[in-house]
Amino acid sequence: MKELKANSSKRVADNVVFGKVKENSARLEKQKDITMYSLNFEQYRAEQKKLNEDAEKYSKMLEAETKLKAFSLKEDLAEFANDSTKIVTAKNWRNDLQKDAYLEEAVFVIQDIWNYRITKQDEIQFDK
């Protein structure tokens, strides 16, 4: 099991999105501690503009595509055929899934468990 954790840790460490998430978390933690703001309106606006630019930069990081490919089931497509709202909702949901680095890592972990189980079948016991 240590091997599984090590593989996941390496993938997360090598993944740019996870690095940016960590940076953003540190930025937000630092920003949370700011309790004093300038009374000079221009200086305040400049500070707010910088904060908004930083927030925008980090929100764009979540737009990066992963290796995941999501699709709707044929049954769902048939159900959506007459409802344009459901079609748009399903499309947005699929697009969001394809950009989800956490979901991608979860899939990789499941693949690792499966491969580990196959190669070490006699050594590992899974709950039934």
Polypeptide structure, described:
This protein is 72% helix and 0% strand. It has helices spanning 2-14, 16-32, 41-61, 74-80, 84-98, 101-119. Helix 1 packs antiparallel against helix 6 (101-119). It starts with a helix and ends in a 9-residue tail after the last helix.
How large is the share of residues in beta strands?
A: under 5%
**Strands, total number:** 0
What order do the helices and strands follow?
HHHHHH
Average pLDDT confidence is: 87
Which word captures the global form? Answer: flat
Query: What can be said about the biggest beta sheet?
Result: none
Query: Portion of residues in helices?
Result: over 70%
Distance between the termini: 18 Å
Report the radius of gyration as a whole number of Å: 22 Å
**Class per helix and strand makeup:** mainly alpha
Low-confidence stretches: none
Q: Helical region count?
A: 6
